[in-house]
């Protein structure tokens, strides 16, 4: 029987519009046109100009270069005003934004350009030689645009340009700042494509839609307690999951973007003080960079600054040092496939009264779902049933909701596998605590199976991090003749500290079951991605090549 509430009450343009974060910028420019939207060194750009330039970009892409719905525009840019304009201008003409990791090699970039079918590429002058190398390997021949950031002071490189080279400001000058930009025809339309790391094969293109970007952008504001006119420092790469959707969040709260071309301790501290920054994000390595800076570099802050971090839980000492320096650290968790962070360690006030070691145990948990995420569970991947909420039984962390990707571009098999059973399978293993907070134990591929027993590399790393001489730790599996596998620990020491394998092995024996103690300790510099994540696949290869 049809409900009377569904009779003659149809959707129409007056009561239903597709959700898109592009409307956040239009509203900000309309209501607060003179408020400063972007700070980049000496540059101050208000919302009226930010909106006008984004519309010019959309107009030029559409009218001068024939780019429209479903086309891909790729960008290889640092954290600059142009990158922010691309997050609006590209989808404003109906196209899909493809942000490229600036630290990739040419072959991977060439693969992405071809796979995404890039029709136009916008490149920072610093990265133009890399892009030229990539284009020489690629099949596509996109229009090439160079962005010349005044803050990049290095001399220009000489190279043979493959085709015509257009200046970014000239590209904008071709457009109309009054351009009647395009809303998505459907909020399910793609707004961006971001590629996974591709450490076990070709990268997969994660396709995000307007609805998800809209919801996560708002979720960010709620989760981080961003009030109107908050000031956000860009220590997180904007190419990483579209900067966790913060390029769109800031417009929703009429905030100010403070661009940072290079993540350096002196620039971070100066910007924190001079621009009255309220929020920033980054991997734990960014915190280590900040608190290890010389005292003459650090600046006194007259307020509490919110720092949001992902990846591995920060060591207890780092958290304590950050708190003393004036920062409140919150742990987030998510993946490219969930638009960035979709889980937050929502802190309870009473936890702050606990001893520091108990607080650290709570801080180590990834947490609970963001408001726009409908469901978060730890599930047995065989039975597809939730594991007991005992904080001990491991399963796979799975997501369900509107901030989960559309799927993997041109890869139906991977899409079906990732969403089997009506859940997004993260590949992360974890436990569910009785209070509903999840805690990661490992990636499924990083679990070490020794004598039939599962060893969590994260658990071993947590013990290593507790040692005051350890700065960075990473644990991977190493072949063992008797047990099959045993942990191998890679360790970076705090500057000026000395520690040998025997002392660190004794430390682990005090805090771990005997079978979990690493069989080998390697003191070395640990490779990381541009976003601060440890590249364990490189460490596993080193172990395999060394035959240890």
Automatic annotation (TrEMBL):
Q: Which PANTHER family match?
A: ACYL-ACTIVATING ENZYME (PTHR43859), BUTANOATE--COA LIGASE AAE1-RELATED (PTHR43859:SF4)
Under the heading Pfam families, the entry gives: AMP-binding, AMP-binding_C
AMP-dependent synthetase/ligase domain: which residues? 25-409
- InterPro entries with a match to the protein in the record: AMP-bd_C, AMP-bd_C_sf, AMP-binding_CS, AMP-dep_synth/lig_dom, ANL_N_sf
UniProt record similarity statement: Belongs to the ATP-dependent AMP-binding enzyme family.
Q: What is this protein called?
A: Acyl-CoA synthetase
Q: Which UniProt keywords apply?
A: Fatty acid metabolism, Ligase, Lipid metabolism
Tell me the ranges covered by the AMP-binding enzyme C-terminal domain, including all copies. Answer: 459-533
């Amino acid at each position: 029987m049809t409900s009377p509430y569904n009779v003659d009450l149809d959707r129409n343009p007056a009561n239903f519009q597709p959700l898109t974060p592009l409307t956040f910028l239009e509203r900000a420019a309309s209501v607060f046109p003179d408020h400063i939207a972007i700070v980049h060194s000496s540059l101050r750009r208000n919302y009226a100009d930010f909106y006008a330039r984004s519309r010019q970009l959309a107009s030029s892409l559409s009218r001068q270069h024939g780019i429209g719905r479903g086309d891909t525009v790729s960008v290889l840019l640092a954290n600059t005003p142009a990158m922010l304009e691309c997050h609006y201008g590209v989808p404003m003409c109906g196209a899909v934004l493809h942000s490229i990791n600036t630290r990739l090699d040419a072959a991977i970039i060439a693969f992405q350009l071809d796979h995404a079918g890039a029709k136009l590429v916008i490149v920072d002058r610093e990265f133009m030689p890399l892009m030229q190398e990539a284009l020489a390997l690629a099949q596509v021949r996109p229009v090439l645009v160079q962005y010349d950031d005044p803050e990049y002071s290095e001399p220009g490189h000489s190279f043979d340009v493959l085709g015509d080279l257009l200046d970014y400001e000239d590209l904008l000058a071709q457009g109309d700042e009054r351009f009647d930009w395009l809303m998505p025809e459907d909020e399910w339309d793609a707004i961006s494509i971001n590629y996974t790391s591709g450490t076990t094969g070709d990268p997969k293109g994660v396709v995000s839609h307007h609805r998800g970007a809209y919801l996560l952008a708002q979720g960010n504001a709620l989760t981080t307690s961003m009030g109107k006119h908050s000031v956000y420092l860009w220590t997180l790469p904007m190419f990483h999951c579209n900067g966790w959707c913060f390029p769109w969040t800031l417009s929703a709260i009429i905030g100010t973007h403070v661009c940072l071309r290079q993540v350096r301790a002196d620039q971070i501290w100066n910007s924190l003080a001079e621009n009255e920054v309220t929020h920033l994000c980054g991997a734990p390595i960014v915190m280590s960079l900040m608190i290890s800076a010389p005292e003459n570099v650090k600046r006194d802050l007259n307020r509490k600054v919110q720092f949001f971090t992902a990846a591995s839980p920060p060591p207890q000492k780092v958290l304590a040092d950050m708190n003393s320096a004036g920062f409140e650290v919150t742990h987030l968790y998510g993946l490219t496939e969930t638009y960035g962070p979709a889980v937050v360690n929502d802190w309870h006030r009473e936890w702050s009264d606990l001893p520091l070691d108990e607080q650290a145990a709570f801080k180590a948990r990834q947490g609970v779902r963001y408001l726009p995420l409908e469901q978060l569970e730890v599930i047995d991947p065989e039975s597809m049933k939730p594991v007991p909420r005992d904080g001990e039984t491991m399963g796979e962390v799975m997501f369900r909701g509107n901030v989960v990707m559309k799927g993997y571009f041109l890869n139906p098999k991977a899409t079906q596998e990732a969403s089997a059973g009506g859940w997004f399978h993260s590949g992360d293993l974890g436990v569910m605590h009785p209070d509903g907070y999840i805690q990661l134990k490992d990636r499924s591929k990083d679990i070490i199976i020794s004598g039939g027993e599962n060893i969590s590399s994260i658990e071993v790393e947590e013990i290593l991090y507790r040692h005051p001489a350890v700065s960075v730790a990473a644990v991977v599996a190493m072949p063992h003749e008797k047990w099959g596998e045993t942990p191998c620990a890679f360790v970076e020491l705090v500057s000026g500290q000395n520690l040998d394998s025997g002392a660190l092995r004794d430390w682990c024996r005090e805090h771990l079951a005997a079978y979990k103690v690493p069989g080998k300790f390697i003191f070395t510099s640990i490779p990381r991605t541009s976003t601060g994540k440890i590249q364990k696949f490189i460490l596993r290869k080193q172990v395999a090549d060394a035959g240890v």
